[in-house]
Structure formats: structure tokens, C-alpha cells
Design the sequence.
């Protein structure tokens, strides 16, 4: 009986040491640069999901006359993101002024813009996130990590507004459906 008890204790000890080591070896260690790229990708995917679920005939919808339409909000997000991309490339641009755009055009613009941003964010290293860069608005210098929080903030901010537009039209946001 003592031998069986001893064998069980040894087995539990080995499993207790080996399993956590195996699990931690499989999970990649998060880094600020990897987390930024993943967070940007999630935000872009979520706002694209919102853009896809709103019917084309509702892209002109405005909860009140004095605010931007659903489609205009999405075009604005693409425009702001593009300003950050251009600034990161060293290109000075003025805000884009798009006229009314149909749903397929808006979605294509968002996909192209987000892909360009992702291509710039993904290869960044943690050290590069700490480098000083010029912010696209105002006259200030920030870290590259703070710089890329700018379009991320815009995407998340407008995502929240657009969820309200969906709800006001009886549409459940895709992120809520997935839960």
C-alpha cells in the first residue's frame, strides 16, 4: 500500500511540474508589438462586420439630421486611418473628402485602408514602439506606440457609435450575436 501511495505522489508531482511547463511552452509570450497588431486587427474586423451587416439602403441613415450618416462615419474612419498611414510614411496629406459612397465602395475603402495599416503595424518591434515620431495632428512628438493608438481609438470610438445606429434599425451587432 505504501508503494502505491508513494507511486501516486511521484506521479502527481511529475504531472504537476511537467504539464504547466508544456502549456507555457506552447503559448507564445505576448509582447507590446504583437498585442498592438492583434488589437488593431480585432478592431478592424469588428468595424468591418458592422459595415457588412448594415443593409446598403441604410448607409445614409442618420439618427438625427445634424450628425453623420452611417456610411459617412465609416468613410471618416478610413480617412483618419489613412492620415496616420501617410504620416508614418512621411507623406503630408490633407483630410480626404469623399462624396457619398455606396456600401461596396465603403467596405472596399475600409479593407484597403486597414490592410495598409496592418502591414505597417505588424512588423514593428517593441523597441520601435518606443521611438519618437511626429503625431499627424497638432505639433507634437509621441512614441510610435502612442501614434498607432490614434487610429485604433478612432475605430473603437466610431464602432461604439455605429452599434447604436444598428440597434436603432433593429439590427443586433455581430459581436453580440457571437456571444
Sequence:
Amino acid at each position: 500500500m505504501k508503494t502505491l501511495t508513494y507511486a501516486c505522489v511521484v506521479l502527481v508531482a511529475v504531472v504537476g511540474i511537467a504539464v504547466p511547463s508544456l502549456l507555457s511552452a506552447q503559448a507564445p509570450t505576448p509582447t507590446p508589438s504583437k498585442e498592438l497588431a492583434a488589437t488593431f486587427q480585432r478592431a478592424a474586423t469588428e468595424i468591418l462586420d458592422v459595415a457588412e451587416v448594415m443593409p446598403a439602403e441604410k448607409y445614409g441613415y442618420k439618427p438625427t439630421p445634424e450628425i453623420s450618416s452611417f456610411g459617412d462615419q465609416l468613410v471618416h474612419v478610413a480617412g483618419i486611418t489613412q492620415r496616420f498611414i501617410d504620416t508614418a510614411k512621411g507623406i503630408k496629406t490633407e483630410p480626404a473628402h469623399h462624396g457619398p459612397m455606396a456600401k461596396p465602395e465603403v467596405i472596399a475603402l475600409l479593407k484597403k485602408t486597414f490592410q495598409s495599416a496592418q502591414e505597417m503595424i505588424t512588423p514593428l518591434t517593441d523597441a520601435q514602439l518606443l521611438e519618437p515620431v511626429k503625431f499627424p495632428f497638432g505639433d507634437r512628438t509621441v512614441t510610435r506606440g502612442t501614434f498607432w493608438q490614434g487610429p485604433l481609438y478612432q475605430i473603437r470610438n466610431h464602432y461604439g457609435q455605429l452599434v447604436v445606429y444598428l440597434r436603432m434599425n433593429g439590427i443586433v451587432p455581430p459581436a453580440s450575436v457571437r456571444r
Q: What stands out?
A: Helices lie at 2-26, 32-53, 70-88, 103-121, 126-129, 144-168, 174-178. The first strand starts at residue 132 and ends at 134.
